[in-house]
Amino acid sequence: MAEALSQPVSFYQAKTGLFSWIFSTDHKRIGLLYFYAIISFFLVAMSLGFLMRLELIAPGETIMDAKTYNQVFTLHGVIMIFLFLIPSVPAFFGNFLLPLMIGTDDVAFPKLNLFSWWLYVLGGIFALLTLVVGNGPADTGWTFYAPYSVKTGTNVTMAVLAAFILGFSSILTGLNFIVTIHRLRAPKMKWFQMPLFAWALYATAWIQLLATPVIGITLLMIIAERVFGVGLFDPALGGDPILYQHLFWIYSHPAVYIMVLPAMGLISEMIPTFAKRTIFGYKAIAYSSLAIAFIGYFVWGHHMFTSGMSGPARVIFSVLTFLVAVPSAIKVFNWVATLYKGSINVKTPLLFSLAFIFQFLLGGLTGLVIGALATDIHLHDTYFVVGHFHYVMFGGAGFAFFGALHYWYGKIWGKMYNESTAQIAFWLMFIGFNVLYFPMLVLGIMGMPRRYYDYLEDFTTLNVVSTVGSWILISGIILMIYNLIVSRKKGEAAPRNPWGSTTLEWQTPSPPPLHNFDATPVVPEGNPYDHKQNKSE
Amino acid sequence: MADNTNSRHLPGDPKEHHIVPYKFHIGIWVGLIILTIMTVLVSVMGISLVAFSVITAMIIASAKAVVVANYFMHLKYENKLITWLMGVTLLLFVVFISFTAFDYITR
Q: Nearest-CA distance from B64 to chain A in Å?
């Protein structure tokens, strides 16, 4: 495909004006709408996290009182989970890339896709309105545990309503992807010729579709408790608070995989490109995505080891939890095996991918420590847990997101980012991240409890280290965003395939035309990551 | 996108749509009505056997659900994959209820 022969109008130029964006049914524009909303919410929640770390730089009240601190960590959690992590990869990268990767012109239900973005915006507005309406934002933690969430005077009802609406947005995205993958693959593209990101999205979409309704019902039950005093969770009325925890985690544990599975899909795309090598164990990675999604439904009880669940139930949930480690480890081994004897090209997306493997490994292994019943009794509700899930969620899903942002930057915005600035930003983020979160693991083992604005003198040194880490991390993020914004104007024009990748989205111009492909994309025979077929590139 | 129009087709999509005569649908409906009457009769006549009447009612209701899914919702004429996915969904639902119940029974 000669570059000069066809330079069609890109989807940016096809239509202009605000309405052409906010009422667009083009999957690429909806993806970008999601991106700008998601990154804005990320920056808000990041600032809240920064304030929390500042409060914890010294024992006692530093910059905020206990109640404010509770509200800040709740809002940080709600925004990061429901408005950043859950939609980040599927709603942005999934929307933008899935139709391109499977060689079609749009998702199966474009109008539903636009509707899901509007629901997302509505949910986001509700979440932010809790700041100014009622008695201030919820102070329950993002889990809204009953009976406290039923009794507190803060604006739990509105926060819960926001999460409810965001759930619908997530369901519609999942439904759209399932139908798209079943029905709209390019002619001749068999299931096992799909890119692994599509497989990851497929597994994720089933979780979005089947688990999200459970949280919808549960959140409505909280509202029913608060408004009508039904007595589902309040022991004083004959209810059971542990029932709430069951219902909450039936969704929220699978939701952890909504956050990390698509991120793993991104890693499976980046690693073969920068190792210039076919991915090792394609089918194993595809099947392990499905296995993680499936087993993820059976393990929710490990969040409740100290909440009064029965002994036998705790043992069973602990055993089942270890099963998730198997498909997760399959992925890690396959990524490492792909790199082995590869012709490695060290670029920013690869650095982020390697950081993902390292940090996800730490997050996963600390997960085993708290998945084991006996150790969890000691570590539950300590900073060990905070360190663990930040390693998985930020060190894993977050780093994959930012790595992918660099990898597909040229495809999405049509310009190349500045490589050396991006690498400096990466190293700041990598060092900052580990300085910020590793001390938390140690603090947890020492016994520092989570969710307090105050702590004992003994914990001071490591808390100072952690807070300094947050400054390094944030300077890295700011530098990265600055680089990406400047490159949008000043970067070199991106060719179709800057990295020599093999999947279909690189066959079309950067940025793609409105209907994605100027000719029917040629599906490579056999494995989609076969670099031998791609030698001429 | 002129040369990619056939992309909006499931590979292995059934080429012809299955047409079911009205009479057949009415027959299914009559069958469902009979099952409903049976449920009522069991609950009225089986008062002394409370547990059994609940189990019978559940079995009849499940049978009705299978018939509705297969014929009215066309599961029988769809790709086998859809039936599998439906089965997985049901299995997960059973897991949610039974695992939660297990905690309560053993507490």
A: 23
Distance from CA of B104 to the nearest CA of A (A): 7
ipTM of the complex: 0.84
Contact A105 B1 (CB under 8 A): yes
Task: Please check the confidence at residue B15 and state whether its pLDDT lies above 90.
Answer: no
Structural domain spans, chain A: 23-506
Nearest beta carbon to residue A187 from set B6, B103, B107: B6
The answer to whether A131 faces chain B, any CB pair under 8 Å, is no
| C-alpha to C-alpha distance for A480 and A460, rounded to whole angstroms | 31
Specify whether the CB–CB gap between A521 and A507 falls below 8 A. yes
CA distance B107 to chain A (A): 4
For residue B29, what are the contacts with CB-CB under 8 A and spacing of at least 6? none
- Give chain A positions within 8 Å (CB) of B89: 210
Report the alpha-carbon distance of residue A313 to residue A302 in Å, rounded.
Answer: 10
pLDDT in tens, A345-356: 999 999 999 999
Tens-digit pLDDT profile for residues B37-64: 988 887 777 655 566 777 888 889 999 9
Pick from A246, A315, A321 the residue to mutate for testing the B interface (most B CBs within 10 Å): A246
A313 to B106: CB separation less than 8 angstroms, yes or no: yes
Q: What is the pTM of this model?
A: 0.91
Pick among A190, A253, A309, A318 to test the B interface (most B CBs inside 10 A): A309
**Range A23-506 has CATH code 1.20.210.10:** yes
- Give pLDDT tens digits for A289-299: 999 999 999 99
Q: How far apart are CA A167 and CA A254, in angstroms?
A: 13
Q: Angle of helix B80-105 relative to helix A241-275, nearest 10 degrees?
A: 140
CA atoms within 13 A on the CB side of A169: 29
CB contact under 8 A, B102 and A313: yes
Q: State the pLDDT confidence band at A147, using cuts at 50, 70 and 90.
A: confident
The more confident residue out of A76 and B20 is A76
CA–CA dist A452, A142 (Å, integer): 15
3-state class of A535 per DSSP?
A: coil
Q: Mean pLDDT across the stretch A32-53?
A: 96
Q: What is the mean pLDDT of chain A?
A: 93
Q: Collapse the DSSP code of A10 into the 3-class scheme (helix H, G, I; strand E, B; otherwise coil) and give the result.
A: strand
pLDDT band at B5 (very low <50, low <70, confident <90, very high): very low
